[in-house]
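Q: Convert this sequence to structure tokens.
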Amino acid sequence: MVLLPSRGTLFPHPLAVEGDIVGVTKTLNVERLQSAYLHGIFPWYNEGEPVLWWFPKPRAVLFPSKLRVHKSMRNVLNRRPWRVSWDRAFTEVIRHCAEVPRKGQRGTWITEEMQERYIQLHHLGWTHSVEVWEGDTLVGGLYGVLVGRVFFGESMFSLRSNASKYALIHMVRQLERRGLLLIDVQQDTAHLRSLGAEAISAERFHHFMRQNRRYWLRYGSIPFG
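A:
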């Protein structure tokens, strides 16, 4: 692991670093976050620990055309039990993602510092949320970072069964029509594979990031929502 200076935004070349952690910093700042996502790097650490910057090898991604919607979920979509909104309650979504208990997990990695920085990124147009409402009550959602044609999924939550999947499916279908290249889901889990995610090589993911940076420099990010 490389200890990076507090100031600056540079990272080592992720393919030249052995292992999945490409750097360590003492603090988290917006400028470094922006640089990180442009290169497919993201922070993941626990409260009270140094900030660890990750580039997993291989990488778990979801290509929009490979999204898998099972019959039971299609029935939910057809019933339209909830209302979906975009970027209407980002702060509430990230708070829920940090606070809603998860099966098999004792705590959360979404620290107060991380919440503050991602809210700042939201005001800059980099982070986004999809919300699922039951009447006026927020019952599910997700948030992540959109850069160019790549969406980096950070976290999701559900207060009703399937509410987070409902948000994900609506988002993928909408962004696919706008040219979404892929969704970075970071972790290769059985749950994400059931939705169509797959693991690709670090080299292939890095190639996508190079393409995406060129797109972002020329056109910016695709519209969200």
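The mean pLDDT is 94.
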